[in-house]
Design a protein that fits this description.
The chain has about 650 residues and is of the alpha+beta class. It has 4 domains: about 5-220 and about 240-245, Heat Shock Protein 90 (2-Layer Sandwich), CATH 3.30.565; about 255-390, Ribosomal Protein S5, domain 2 (2-Layer Sandwich), CATH 3.30.230.80; about 405-500, Rossmann fold (3-Layer(aba) Sandwich), CATH 3.40.50.11260; about 510-650, Up-down Bundle (Four Helix Bundle (Hemerythrin (Met), subunit A)), CATH 1.20.120.790. It is built from 21 helices and 22 strands. The chain is elongated, with a radius of gyration of 33 Å. Bound molecules: adenosine-5'-diphosphate.
Length: about 650
């Protein structure tokens, strides 16, 4: 460390992760090279894209390449690139901290990754920490980088011990050089010798062959003068020749016939574009002709990234190429938000090479490609659903919540997307498709019923379901945030309307049965009218009406809304989003057949002013609130009468 170098501490989480990299067992340590080459390739991509907009930068893009350099004596391996580079701030931000940290999920994943002292690549890939993998093979790493818009470079160095140093440095051209001070090879520990050319050559072929920039290395070979038959000339001496070799074929993998590419090659390509460390769940390779001609190689990951729902950190989109020329990473315009988990490349034959972000947003061709990709992904999913049940289950578990956003985002494909959705349904252990729900509907059930709420567990025990259960009507139990929105916006599915069972009046049974029940209820309503009125007044703040219920069989009470009311969850969401939503009152429905109601009626008949009636009204309201899994607006409102009742009863 030179005197002017400044020392910094890694962010706590970055340090934890670094520790994990250094101390856990992992048998594929060579992937550090894939990670560093991927970073270099991304940096070259970024510079190329920036240079399209900023002609000042074009002078740096004449010979984009990656160079690997070794020093066997000093045991050094350096990965140079002529990419965009990093500013000092970016080095601190990107290399000293982990962007995707800070969440509960992060900590739990980190603990899982640590548990048995082994590194679990499927978890590590979640953090976006490719660079740290260099500490699996090196005990010191030095990075020198100069951003394309800066004159000065910065030198970063660390031994992975929790701190790093930064100082100013010189570098002739923009780009980054990462130098690894290699540990001694240890075959037992899966550590090959990365100071050896052949190890490097093999590793590049295996993991990075398709990288679209040349990966060069200076190699030494011996040469001897030969005659025209190829025989060594007598007396000629062997000469050492040092020359550049390009280690990768740079072949665009999506243009090669599928039969010639191995699964392993496809998977490595996936890891390169996605920065994931695990195998993809599924891939699809296709070519579109007609209005727009393009090829696409798309992947569905096997695990949802932690930040899939964090718009500010998750990078969505596929890589865009135009006639084999790389244009940009993560092109959002090509993939709708509800398919943001899809990774891969699209190579268009028709777009113009000097396309810009602004043009992308309005371009009709881009729209056509996006529609084509959407259709293809949906068809692929439908195919998996039909033919690979287990795979689809994994897919749905990881990405179902995202796909469901499409029900509202993409009206044109709404029915297709609904067909792909799976739901918790009363009376079924398995998740079901809507068609399966329709198949389960008994005669007399005309609508698809649903109940939405905070969690599946709370919904399962909700009193609203009682009469539906008794009749054998399946009810969808919807607990995802997006579920608060779509059923009200989708008119129907296969001509069956969606209907919330927590709003409006219920209609169960044949018309005949309904008529009869309605009449009995009207009769009862008359008998109970006075009591219901008395129950209403202490609940005035929360409830607009107390009425008899047609949906309860076992529970004494439940809360419902009018047909046009917002659900309490939706109300809460809108308020959280800053909207001024007036607090709406709900309806308390009580079960006339329940002993509590019968006894209350007797109490009321004996003395309509009995103060206990108000206490019981509060308790009924509290029970109904808790039974649907909601929070009590005022705990004392429930607790006080409950304590009083307990004291009296004991
Ligand atoms: P990931 O690449 O998975 O996001 P890394 O830890 O490998 O995670 O890199 C973090 C960030 O550091 C990258 O996203 C990039 O912005 C920056 N970076 C890493 N290597 C380079 C490089 N060679 N040139 C420019 N920027 C780089």
């Amino acid at each position: 460390m030179t005197p002017q170098a400044e020392t910094f501490e890694f962010q706590t989480e970055a340090r934890q992760l670094l520790d994990l990299m250094i101390h856990s067992v992992y048998s594929h340590k060579e992937i550090f090279l894939r990670e560093l080459i991927s970073n270099a390739s991304d940096a070259l991509d970024k510079l190329r894209f920036e240079a399209l907009q900023d002609p000042e930068l074009a002078k740096f893009t004449a010979d984009p390449h990656i160079r690997l350099e070794t020093d066997k004596e000093k045991r050094l391996l350096t990965i140079h690139d002529t990419g965009i580079g990093m500013t000092r701030d970016e080095v601190i931000r990107y290399i000293g901290t982990i962007a995707k940290s800070g969440s509960k999920e992060y900590l739990s994943l980190l603990n899982q990754a640590k548990k048995d002292g082994e590194l679990h690549p499927e978890l590590i890939g979640q953090f976006g920490v490719g660079f740290y993998s260099s500490f699996m093979v090196a005990d010191k790493v030095t990075l020198v980088t100069r951003h394309a818009t800066h004159e000065k470079a910065v030198r970063w160095e660390s031994t992975g011990d929790g701190t790093f140093t930064l100082e100013e440095a010189d570098r002739d051209e923009p780009g980054t050089s990462v130098t690894l001070h290699l540990k001694n090879p240890d075959e037992e520990d899966g550590l090959s010798d990365f100071a050896q050319e052949w190890t490097i050559r093999q590793t590049v072929r295996k993991y990075s062959d398709f990288v679209s920039y040349p990966i060069r290395m200076r190699v030494e070979r011996t040469e001897i003068e030969r005659d025209k038959d190829g025989q060594p000339v007598e007396g000629a001496e062997e000469k050492k020749v040092v020359e550049d070799e390009t280690l990768n074929s740079m072949k665009a993998i999506w243009t090669r016939p599928e039969s010639e590419v191995t699964d392993e090659e496809y998977n490595e390509f996936y890891k390169h574009v996605s920065h994931d460390w695990s195998e993809p769940l599924h891939r699809t390779n296709f070519r579109a002709e007609g209005r727009s001609e393009f090829r696409a190689l798309l992947f569905i990951p096997s695990k949802a990234p932690m930040d899939l729902f964090m718009a500010q950190s998750y990078s969505r989109g596929v890589h865009l190429y135009i006639r084999r020329v790389f244009i940009m990473q993560d092109c959002e315009e090509l993939i709708p938000p509800f398919l943001r988990f899809v990774k891969g490349v699209v190579d268009s034959e028709d777009l113009s090479l000097n396309i810009s972000r602004e043009i992308l947003q309005q371009n009709r061709q881009v729209q056509t490609i996006r529609n084509g990709l959407t259709r293809k992904v949906l068809d692929t999913l439908s195919d998996i659903q039909k033919n690979q049940a287990e795979k689809y289950e994994t897919f749905w578990g990881e990405f179902g919540r995202v796909l469901k956003e499409g029900i509202l985002q993409d009206r044109k494909n709404q029915e297709k997307i609904l067909d792909l959705c799976r739901f918790h349904v009363t009376g079924s252990e398995k998740l079901l498709t809507l068609q399966e729900v329709i198949d389960l509907m008994p005669e007399g059930q005309e609508k698809i019923y649903y109940l939405s709420g905070e969690s599946y567990e709370a919904l399962k025990g909700s009193p609203h379901l009682e009469a539906f259960r008794e009749k054998g009507y399946p009810v969808l139990l919807l607990a995802d945030t997006i579920d608060e929105m779509w059923p009200q916006a989708v008119y129907n599915f296969k001509e069956k309307e969606f209907q919330s069972i927590a709003r409006g009046e219920v209609e169960i049974g044949t018309e005949e049965e309904r008529k009869q029940e309605e009449e009995t209820r009207k009769e009862k309503q008359k008998v109970f009218a006075d009591l219901l009125k008395t129950l209403e007044s202490p609940l005035d703040e929360y409830v607009k009406e107390v009425r008899l219920s047609a949906r309860l069989t076992d529970s004494p009470a439940c809360l419902v809304g009018d047909t046009a009311d917002l659900s309490p969850q939706l109300e809460q969401m809108l308020r959280a989003a800053g909207q001024d939503v007036p607090k709406s009152k709900r309806i308390l429905e009580v079960n006339a057949a329940h002993p509590i109601l019968e006894k209350l009626k007797a109490l009321h008949e004996a003395d309509a002013k009995d103060p206990r009636i108000a206490d019981y009204a509060q308790l009924l309201y509290g029970l109904a609130t808790l039974a649907e899994g909601s929070r009590l607006p005022d705990t004392a409102f429930f607790n006080k009468p409950l304590a009083k009742l307990m004291a009296e009863a004991l």
